[in-house]
Amino acid sequence: MTQSALSQNTVIRSRDTAKEVSNAGMFFRRWLANPLQMGSIVPSSPALCQRVVRNVRRAEDEIVLELGAGTGVISQALLDGGVPANRLYVVEIVPAMARHLRDVLPGVNVIEGDARHLPDLLPAHWQGKVGTVICGVPLVLLPKPEQRRFIDAIEAVAPGRGFLHYSYCATSPLPAKLHTLGAKREAWTPLNFPPASVWRYTPAG
Q1: How far apart are CA 69 and CA 81, in angstroms?
Q2: Global pTM?
Q3: CATH number at residue 145
Q4: CA distance 126 to 87
Q5: At residue 64, what are phi and psi to the nearest 5 degrees?
Q6: Cβ(154)–Cβ(135) under 8 Å?
Q7: 163-167 and 196-203 as β-strands: parallel, antiparallel, unpaired?
Q8: Which of 77, 86, 142, 151 fits as disulfide partner to 146, beta carbons 3.0 to 4.6 Å?
Q9: 68-104: string of b/e by CB count within 10 Å (b at 16+)?
Q10: How many domains does the chain have?
């Protein structure tokens, strides 16, 4: 097989994998069932996934933790970006989506459960060894006390690290000062539907 043919086949396989992972139909049905659990009606675009991946920090002995993995498009981008499967932990509250993630992300640690209970979900030996937490849960839609529960759960397993949060809001989706957080918009992409930002929140002080 020629190099050009091999490259073409690789591109075709990559497109097939992306289509398999994204499963837009499942995503939309889940949005219809519970819009508060889903930030959008369609999975994140490749442009948004790339911006998330570029802002991930992880030492060799640390893991990456994704909350609200959905159908796994960002998870797959993390793998493509070099995060080893055994160093990627994803949390998904919807049973059907958790099963889908196990099917399409072999080797990734898929945890079915509520991210507000992270200390009970994440293995104890990885707590304090989290390089980056990525939050895909639409926190902007939650009451402030519920936002605080997510923030406290993240701090419990990744003390001092904060988290990345992608959102479709024009401004910060969290009232950072109220939650004693520093907020920085790391990236913005108009190529997502709807346009999206990647925010980094870190404990203030």
Answers
A1: 16
A2: 0.81
A3: 3.40.50.150
A4: 10
A5: -110, 135
A6: yes
A7: antiparallel
A8: 142
A9: bbbbbbbbbbbbeeebeeebbbbbbbbeebbebbbeb
A10: 1
Q: Give the structural domain span for 87.
A: 3-203
Q: Using N-to-C axis directions, what is the helix angle for 73-80 and 46-54, rounded to 10°?
A: 50
* Residues 153, 157, 162, 165, CA torsion sign: negative
Q: Which tens digits make up the pLDDT trace of 105-127?
A: 999 999 999 999 999 999 999 99
Q: How far is CA 97 from CA 49, 60, 68, in A?
A: 18, 29, 10
Residue 31 one-letter amino acid:
W
How far is the CA of 9 from the CAs of 6, 81, 106, 107, in angstroms? 5, 20, 21, 24
The pLDDT tens digits for 4-55 are 333 333 333 343 444 465 555 544 445 444 544 444 444 568 889 999 999 9
